[in-house]
Amino acid sequence: MEPLKISLHPAEVGDAERLWKMQVGAFSEMYEKYRDEKTSPAAEKIGRTVARLKSPDTYYYFILADGEAVGAIRVIDPKDGRPKRISPIFIMPQYRNRGIAHEAVLEAERLHGASGWELETVLQEAASCRLYEKLGYRRAGEPRAVNDRMTLVTYIKE
Fold it and tell me: Distance between CA atoms of 110 and 146, rounded to whole angstroms?
């Protein structure tokens, strides 16, 4: 099977509803699993997506696989020395486990610089932790329990 061509396409405020619906769909399984009302992207209202799209430090991209939108990544790039952040990144369930998120992060790093990154992910999601570790990120700080089912860990890439 030929590898997918992964690219990032900038999202705009007019894409908010589409992005939000994709995000809710992509995170709904984790929401059911962890019941995280506070930090789950599946529990967010569309207004949060609109606000992110309007933020001056935010770069939101659709993740395209062979030209088809299969997910999204938001890069917060303050350009003032503070770390860049990925929050959130998601791949629609039917496209997972194909290396798409890995390539999307590499593309984000190509666009915004390969160092000076920070992100959080769910400790209980071993595949997510492996993804970032394979990309050269390392754990930093203390894990933070969100509830009795879920803990967030911070990863950095200096």
Answer: 32
- Higher-confidence residue: 124 or 37? 124
* Any domain includes 1: no
The amino acid at residue 50 is: V
Is there a contact between 143 and 151 (Cβ–Cβ < 8 Å)? yes
Residues of the domain holding 69: 6-157
Strands 68-76 and 84-91: antiparallel
Q: Given the structure tokens 């790093």, which residue do they identify?
A: 109
143 CB contacts (<8 Å, ≥6 apart)?
123, 151, 152, 153
On the question of pLDDT at 1 being above 80, the answer is no
- Regarding pTM above 0.85, the answer is yes
Beta bridge partners of 76: 58, 85
pLDDT of 2 reads 75
Give, as one character, the DSSP assignment of residue 41. G
